[in-house]
Amino acid sequence: MTSNDLVKSILQRDVDEQDRILKSTEVTKPCPVDVDLGNLLVWDPNVVDQQAYKENREEYIKNTMRDNMQLFVNALWQVPIERHDNTVVAKLPDAKTVVPREKPVPKPKPLTKWQKFAQSKGIVKRNKSKFVWDETKQEWGRRYGYKKANDDTKPWLIEVPGSADPNEDQFAKRLAAKKERVAKNEFQRLKNIARANKINVRNDGAIINKKSSTNDVKKALATAKYSDASMGQFSEQAAPDEARQTRGFSKKRKFESNLGSLKSEKNKQLKLFEQMNSSTAK
């Protein structure tokens, strides 16, 4: 091999290497691929070349992925492009492919009574800072929660009002009022949850079931009369129709008198003793 042939082979090898590294941005395939920019998805319907795949599987997969990625980038640069803070942003279209979800789409939470009122009045919630300045401590503290700033719930001295009892514990009174406010807020929260779930609740918290019929109420009343420790012996007698509606409680239990005869009690105990000593007793 002459020197010219050696130089030509080296140059040709460099050209082939450059062509392999820097391929053209124009990619042609027998069947056009389906590009779904909304899901950043490329669907390639072309048939796999079995011979090329068996000869060099890694190289074949790499070339196929490179061509599909090039087609995806070409389609991406055709959508409207905006620039925000020296960053190029592409406005993607709506997705064409329906991707299945593992779980259903979460339902929006129902609005509370206050949220509905705020929407009707146009009240906008403003995000407040978590920290406020404490004038007493001369430092920043939390607005709410433990060790909050400007906390007047634990003062070391409380002035007794003129109309109050001078012997009344003002600290215990303030603590009881705080517990009452907390309980009231919790009760109101539960009522909001019940209202959002369309459950009728009275002011005392009892659930109102409009589907309950008169027979259901009578049945519940008759059952309650037979649910005490004496099985209804000392309760008000239920009406005959109410007693028939109960399950297993229509027959009243009978108790023997505590002032019975000694002879009958002796016979009963002997009979019980014989049953215990009997070999056929269960």
Automatic annotation (TrEMBL):
<dbReference type="InterPro" id="IPR007023">
    <property type="entry name" value="Ribosom_reg"/>
</dbReference>
<protein>
    <recommendedName>
        <fullName>Ribosome biogenesis regulatory protein</fullName>
    </recommendedName>
</protein>
<dbReference type="GO" id="GO:0005730">
    <property type="term" value="C:nucleolus"/>
</dbReference>
<dbReference type="GO" id="GO:0030687">
    <property type="term" value="C:preribosome, large subunit precursor"/>
</dbReference>
<comment type="similarity">
    <text>Belongs to the RRS1 family.</text>
</comment>
<keyword id="KW-0539">Nucleus</keyword>
<dbReference type="GO" id="GO:0042273">
    <property type="term" value="P:ribosomal large subunit biogenesis"/>
</dbReference>
<keyword id="KW-0690">Ribosome biogenesis</keyword>
<dbReference type="GO" id="GO:0000447">
    <property type="term" value="P:endonucleolytic cleavage in ITS1 to separate SSU-rRNA from 5.8S rRNA and LSU-rRNA from tricistronic rRNA transcript (SSU-rRNA, 5.8S rRNA, LSU-rRNA)"/>
</dbReference>
<comment type="function">
    <text>Involved in ribosomal large subunit assembly.</text>
</comment>
<feature type="region of interest" description="Disordered">
    <location>
        <begin position="229"/>
        <end position="282"/>
    </location>
</feature>
<dbReference type="Pfam" id="PF04939">
    <property type="entry name" value="RRS1"/>
</dbReference>
